[in-house]
Amino acid sequence: MTVTVETTINGQPVTGEVDENTLLVQFIRENQELTGTHVGCDTSQCGACTVHLDGVPVKSCTMLAVQANGHEVTTIEGIGEEGNLHPMQAAFQENHGLQCGFCTPGMIMASIGIVERNKSNLDDETIRRELEGNICRCTGYHNIVKSIAAAAQDM
Amino acid sequence: MYKFNYVKADSVDAAAAAVSGSEDGKILAGGMTLLPTMKQRLAAPSDLVDLGGIDALKGIEVSGDSVTIGAMTTHATVAASADVAGAIPALTELASGIGDPQVRNRGTIGGSVANSDPSADYPAAVVALGATVVTNKREIAGDDFFLDIFETALEEDEIITAVRFPIPEKAAYIKFPNPASRYAVVGVFVCTGGGDVRVGVTGAGPCAFRATGIEDALKADFSAAAVDGVTVDGSEFNEDMHASAEFRTSLVSVGAKRAVAALS
């Protein structure tokens, strides 16, 4: 048996016929070939698969693709492009907020949520607490925190 | 993940019928526990009945003496609710400490309560505040709801629609989180009102329970020192790689004392 996925990804309506047990991240990467969203742990710990669902960060490895029906998904590809980066992407570049880069798409999607939730009240302690759901195995947290604080000024 | 049939329910009645009519159907709320469990092949339901499309199950209502939270209301929504913060700030604190921001954006109170995970946060508040678990069939007192590890009073096709919390005079929730998962190694919820003191504990035993010995001591003398005189029976407590039963026994007392200190 299969199910029909009918959702919106980065503003574009998309449909697909997939197995019921297809995860949202599989649909994004394999069906839609948007490989910016990464799979790190596949156990909802690391946050590399973070995307926005109706504007808020969620872990796309812990959602069925069919659960996105009728909702709007935004991936890292949907927030900026070369030459016109999202302020969070620009801040990560400017502040060297990445080392190997594997966690970066999830970090950026989660970080946009952090700034949007805490706009007026964003200190380093808040940023570190709110990064709870994202792991950087290069342990490059210091510059990630710096990047988010910088982006908060431009968002 | 094993295969299953996916059913999107448009009402609670339809969801209950879909579960009853299936071989081994399960309700899908936020999926923050169920989906990882299925990915590990520790659960293999024949059908998943998704409540995500039922708007009637979402929302928060505060009346003069209670806060009612719809079963599909996310932890993020509860954490951000000014109404909840005004009525039961300890519940705001509890909801904002569950998992991580992404998990709070999906996880729901109904799912947390129905699962009776021994380390989940909400069950401590349900037993301490004497909440009522409202289902499609009846109302269940918080004290009668949690039976054992992953076991509740819910019947197979019974679905939680809301949880109603009486507003206490004062309440505090102290949690010793696992540093990686943020699940409660032990969580202690203390509340007072009408001359009564109630203490709910999660993380320590097979399911959430009331620490009646501590309650009695605090009713006689509401002070952290009073908790010292109580021996917590940890003989049935959980023991795992994160904490021994002995350590959890100690954390119940320490948590209760810190909660009392926060309220004094």
Q: Key terms for this structure?
A:
heterodimer; A: 155 residues; alpha+beta; Ubiquitin-like (UB roll); DNA polymerase, domain 1; 2 domains; 5-stranded mixed β-sheet; 5 helices; 34% helix; 17% strand; B: 264 residues; Uridine Diphospho-n-acetylenolpyruvylglucosamine Reductase, domain 2; Uridine Diphospho-n-acetylenolpyruvylglucosamine Reductase, domain 3; 5-stranded antiparallel β-sheet; 4-stranded antiparallel β-sheet; 14 strands; globular
Write structural notes for this entry:
The complex is a heterodimer of chains A (155) and B (264). Chain A is α+β, with helices and mostly antiparallel strands. Chain A folds into two domains: 2-78, Beta-grasp domain (Ubiquitin-like (UB roll)), CATH 3.10.20.30; 87-154, [2Fe-2S]-binding domain (DNA polymerase, domain 1), CATH 1.10.150.120. Chain A contains five helices and five strands; from the N terminus they run E-E-H-E-E-E-H-H-H-H. Chain A has helices at residues 24-31, 87-94, 104-118, 124-130, 141-154; strands at residues 2-9, 12-19, 50-53, 56-59, 72-74. In chain A, strands 2-1-5-3-4 form a five-stranded mixed β-sheet, sandwiched between helices. In chain A, helix 3 (104-118) packs across helix 5. Chain A is globular. The termini of chain A are far apart. The model of chain A has no long low-confidence stretch (mean pLDDT 96). Chain B has 264 residues and is α+β, with helices and mostly antiparallel strands. Chain B folds into two domains: 5-50, Uridine Diphospho-n-acetylenolpyruvylglucosamine Reductase, domain 2 (2-Layer Sandwich); 57-263, 2-Layer Sandwich (Uridine Diphospho-n-acetylenolpyruvylglucosamine Reductase, domain 3), CATH 3.30.465.10. Helices cover 34% and strands 25% of the residues of chain B. Chain B contains twelve helices and 14 strands. The longest helix of chain B has 19 residues, at 245-263.
Quickly name the level 1 CATH class of the largest domain in chain A: Alpha Beta
* Ends apart, CA distance between termini of chain B: 49 Å
Mean pLDDT over the residues of chain B: 97
Output the strand order for the largest sheet of chain A: 2-1-5-3-4
Measured by DSSP, the beta-strand proportion of chain B falls in: 25-35%
> Span from first to last CA of chain A?
44 Å
The CATH topology of the largest domain in chain A corresponds to Ubiquitin-like (UB roll)
Helix content of chain A: 25-40%
